[in-house]
Structure formats: C-alpha cells, structure tokens
Design goal:
Keywords: Membrane, Transmembrane, Transmembrane helix. With 148 residues, the protein is mainly α. It is built from 8 helices and no strands.
Length: 148
C-alpha cells in the first residue's frame, strides 16, 4: 500500500519538465505512427530473429503502444508518475531489439556500420532518463524512499 502512495503522490513539475514530457509524448506518437505506415519495413528489420512472434505483428503492436504512451504523456498529466515508469519500462523492454541490431549487423534507419549501431545504443538510457525526469517519476520515488 505504501508503494501506491509513492506513485500517487503529487509529482514535482516545472515548465522544462512539462515541455520535456509533452515533447517525449509527441516523439512517441510520431514513432508509433511511423511504425504503422512509412517506416514499417525498417522497424521489421529491427525485430530480433529469436523473438517467437510475427515481425509485422511486433511492429504494429509496438506502434500502437507507442501512440498510447505518447497520448498518456500528453493528455494524462495527473498520472504522469505512473506513465513515466511505464514509458521507462517500455524503453527498457525494446532495448534488446537495439542490441540485436548491432549483434546481427542489421542495416536500418541509416545505421549501416557497427559504430553507428553501437552509438545508437547510448540513446536508449537517455530515453529512460528523459521519461523519468520529465514526469517527475524518479523524484517522486526518491521522495517516497526518503519519507520512510
């Protein structure tokens, strides 16, 4: 029950955090739409071979999830802490696909060298940090721990 109070407590916000949250939401919605349309094949190339699901299904499902998460970031500010943790978890969940792209030397999105694919890996932790910072999720969690 105490954990629920941590997530439900009022998260800190500011103009930079709000801009960051809305910007991340817009980026996720754009990425989601691109999964469903003009970048569909490029995203299919990133689905790891070891994943026992149809590549097109994975791309379509992840696109729908990204649109939903983006909408939640933009339109549900009262739930931003919970949404922040879910978005961060999503970014962690898709990270193996980025690792697979490097390991299998899959060319996609202009990432056609190991250096470019390796450099791309550095951005996933930044997305996690962006989600947690812009929603106040990390600060709310730390405040909850400090009040114990």
């Amino acid at each position: 029950m105490k954990q629920n109070r941590i997530v439900a407590q009022k998260a800190p916000t500011s103009i930079p955090r709000t801009i960051g949250r809305i910007g991340l939401g817009a980026a996720l919605m754009f990425a989601g739409v691109s999964h469903l349309s003009f970048n569909r094949e490029a995203f299919q190339a990133q689905v790891p071979e070891w994943l026992p699901l149809d590549k097109d299904f994975v791309v379509l499902a992840s696109g729908v999830v990204e649109i939903g998460l983006g909408l939640a970031l933009v339109a549900a500010p009262k739930h931003r802490v919970t949404v922040g943790w879910v978005v961060a978890a999503f970014f962690v969940a898709i990270f193996p696909g980025n690792i697979s792209q490097l390991a299998t030397r899959t060319n996609s999105f202009g990432l056609d060298t190991d250096a470019a694919r390796g450099f791309r890996l550095l951005f996933q932790p930044l997305l996690v940090i962006w989600a947690l910072w812009s929603t106040g999720a990390w600060r709310a969690w730390r405040a909850g721990r400090a009040s114990r």
